[in-house]
Amino acid sequence: MKTHEFKKAVERLKLRVENDERMLVIDEVDTLNWLADVSLDAQYGMRMYFGMAEEIGEEKTHELAKLVIEYATTPIAERE
């Protein structure tokens, strides 16, 4: 994993969520997934959740962002 790029992507994701920039959040999730080598199914699921951010509300969007960051920062061997 490209650690420096990954850390920058995490910071951008946090900023996008704070600023409620939904489409940019999706882009950052895609970047994190690529950098962290997340499976395509998981990437699609995360993209769908963030795409529905308007329907699920701000609090849920923040929770999802935290989960994505937590998942993406967990070494692949330790993921469930």
Description:
The structure is a single chain. This protein has five helices and no strands. With 80 residues, it is mainly alpha-helical. The chain has one domain (3-72). The radius of gyration is 12 Å and the shape is globular. 22% of the residues are buried.
- Quick one: overall form? globular
What is the domain total for the residues? 1
Give the structural class.
mainly alpha
Tally of DSSP helical segments:
5
* Beta-strand residue percentage: under 5%
- The ordered H/E elements are HHHHH
- Gyration radius, to the nearest Å? 12 Å
Low-confidence stretches: none
The termini sit apart by 19 Å
Average pLDDT: 67
Record field, number of beta strands: 0
What is the helical fraction, as a range of percent? over 70%
The oligomeric status of these chains comes to single chain
Query: How would you characterize the largest beta sheet?
Result: none
